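Hey, I'm writing a tutorial for new members on how sequence and structure tokens pair up, and I'd like a real worked example in the thread rather than a made-up one. If someone can provide the structure for the chain below, I'll link this post from the tutorial.
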Amino acid sequence: MSQHNCSKDGPTSQPRLRTLPPAGDSQERSDSPEICHYEKSFHKHTAAPNYTHCGLFGDPHLRTFTDRFQTCKVQGAWPLIDNNYLNVQVTNTPVLPGSAATATSKLTIIFKNFQECVDQKVYQAEMDELPAAFADGSKNGGDKHGANSLKITEKVSGQHVEIQAKYIGTTIVVRQVGRYLTFAVRMPEEVVNAVEDRDSQGLYLCLRGCPLNQQIDFQAFRANAEGPRRPAAASPSPVVPETFPYETAVAKCKEKLPVEDLYYQACVFDLLTTGDVNFTLAAYYALEDGKMLHSNKDKLHLFERTRELPGAVAMAALPLTPQLFIGTLTLLALLPVFW
């Protein structure tokens, strides 16, 4: 809006209704320009592109394009992806009023206008509203010749939507699990890094991870929980929902996640912090989406949260802030051996 000097006050025009392609139409029109197929156009004379994966799920847990795994607060609206072709923004809200636990309640995806392939398209999902179409009612990229190089497909009504953007070699999976949303994407490295000014992309979560002050550091949690206890009256009582006993949380997570990797750990943590069994499925589907979207199956399971050296782009290995510690001390003090 600032670039085009747009007014924040009306008037606004009503969205145009698109004519959907007939049933059985090919994924791409026969006259679709070659540039609207990423692998055919961008890499015609070079090696196949390297694909990367990013996912966000649960309370919320972030797997970045570089396979860093973080658990963050990031309450409110945050950009997951912001490059020359695509913008993805999520909104995270408290699971319970006053609770430190947050989850994704809204997702907005903007596919930017691209040559003769697609018009700009917006996809929006919220709790209990997972549309099988873009905001203007269409299911493809619009009126251009390469319109079907962008296509949305409903896999399970109200629960699972997949968006194929072949012109940028990208696949996006959006799910509603319980009340909240999950997000997963497969994207070529060339598209991931297509950013005009990398220095201004500090909040591009899928690329750079969560800001340090938004991260929950489990190693520091454990160190603090095993240290001397502060008197109960010395700190405010956090809001703790009715949650599962530790043994029950472990048993429920192992049913769906037999490998005790970070997805499993995220599942147990979410059951302990939210008391919502649907977070078990959120972790399970996040792993399943990773199986489908991650190009390197050897890196599917992660077992240690990455702690980068000081000065690294995403984070430095610094101690936990008092604010984060106070908000979770009560829970983790009861579970000193979990992490």
